Amino acid sequence: MIPVYVINLARSPERRAFMAEGLARAGVAPEFVAAVDGRACRPDRAPPAALSRAETALILSHRKAWRRLLASAAEYAVVLEDDAHVGEGFAELLDADWSGLSFDAVKLESLFGRVWIARRGRPVAGRTLRRLGAEHLASAGYLVSRAGARKFLSLTRPLAEPVDQTLFGRAAVLGRRVVVYQLDPAIVVQDNLLPQRGAQRGIATTLHEHDRVRMTEAARRAKPRGLRRLAREARRLYGQARRIARLGWSMRFVKVEWR
């Protein structure tokens, strides 16, 4: 069975218990990776992005998971953040044969937005594996290969962008920097996006006040007005047209569900 690494902060034992409980119900015994604490990190100001403490810590934590895979005898590993729910047949997915497919990562998660995925796919454990054609952000659940782990370690030196951008961002996927597939329907969802509202556990964020203030202020400053807003909209429409021209013949723009 493919190992499952769960990234968890030592100061969040309730999240560790939540993940252990959910994965036990799925028939899986995870390995916990001690997350780097953002409170101990200095923000990395390397261009093109000014990373917060939390973003820096998250990259470093995922790097620990990738290094653990490379230090093991396993060919693949599933990496989960500690606010994830797993869906039906998770253990069967871990037992599936992945050896006939070359990839850096398989995104197991959905944000329930529309994304570009291949029209044609390959069945795996009762689901379909489809090539991802453009960005599909978040990093709460993915399968990574040994080749992918080596590539992601290289791409995150120096720390220049949030980890989900390195894994599943526009430059990574649309720019073909990495080979990524999407599991359809997804089998991982973050707690705050769980469709069954009554089943949400209300897991508290580990984002500290410094990051909340920074992100709010950055979003306010980035919001354009007047001619800048019109120019941004024109660029967005032009980008959409280019994507349709490039991806439309082999991909479809659809909502990825979860179960």
**What share of the residues does DSSP label as strand, in percent?**
15-25%
**CATH uppermost class:** Alpha Beta
In whole angstroms, the N-to-C terminal distance is 21 Å
What is the topology, as strand order, of the major beta sheet? 2-1-3-9-5-10-8-7
Notes on the protein architecture:
The chain has helices at residues 13-25, 53-71, 90-95, 146-155, 163-168, 170-173, 209-222, 226-247; strands at residues 4-8, 31-34, 76-81, 84-86, 105-107, 114-118, 122-124, 127-131, 141-145, 180-184, 188-190, 251-255. The chain has 259 residues and is of the alpha/beta class. The chain has one domain (4-193, 201-255): Spore Coat Polysaccharide Biosynthesis Protein SpsA, Chain A. It is globular, with a radius of gyration of 18 Å. The protein starts with a strand and ends with a strand. The model has no long low-confidence stretch (mean pLDDT 88).
